[in-house]
What we know:
- The structure holds two protein chains of two kinds.
- Chain A is mainly β.
- Chain A has strands at residues 3-5, 10-14, 19-21, 24-26, 31-38, 44-50, 56-58, 64-68, 73-78, 87-95, 101-103, 107-112.
- The mean pLDDT of chain A is 94.
- Chain B contains no helices and eleven strands.
- Chain B has strands spanning 5-7, 10-13, 19-24, 31-37, 44-50, 53-56, 65-68, 75-79, 88-95, 103-104, 108-112.
- At the A-B interface, strand 5, strand 6, strand 10 and strand 11 of A face strand 5 and strand 10 of B.
Amino acid sequence: xxxxxQHNHHVIxxxxxxxxxxxxxxxxxxxxxxxxxxxxxxxxxxxxxxFSGDPLVKGIKGFEAEFIKSKFSFNLRKPSxxxxxxxxxxxxxxxxGTYKYIFGTGTRLKVLA
Amino acid sequence: xxxxxxxxxxxIIEKRQSVAFWCNPISGHATLYWYQQIxxxxxxxxxxxxxxxxxxxxxxxxxxxxxxxxxxxxxTLKIQPAKLEDSAVYLCASSLVGIxxxxxxxxxxxxxx
Lengths: 113, 113
């Protein structure tokens, strides 16, 4: 069955540290990829998405993600985190040509001031 | 622009009771999603509507869950009868078209005792 794996469930970083959150999916076909974020007390919202083209995608608030097809990965990165990045981050995959969306289990990021 | 509205925000019921959740998507959004998010897990897609037609309900437990989207706008998700394992946050999301950015509502937190 198709699935999305987020390897780190909890990450704690100090401000200015670099961030990389892993996301791997299991599906042999074409996919559309998303990262969503949920800040404390707020709704889930889109950080960035990849449909096609340049595999390095830039999103809001300095986040970026790289699609590596050979590794079935879509890792999220930020060179220097801020306290305000404390949130839960979800990777999501849409199986292209279908209506199926699969979310990962999420990664809780805590940034220490 | 008004966001996705959901009500109620919280609901506590006893097992075997019935419950209904309401969602009003962003105006003009054709696609509406209902997700179930159990504590510690990512959102799981229950059902997806395109206008007032169902395009995917493969993960909806149809023996107890039902959903409708009359007139292609508001939607209602019902659970009848509820079980303890239905305790979760029920999220509604909408998008302009099927495979696009989803805008999430605040969710309804259901506790089944």
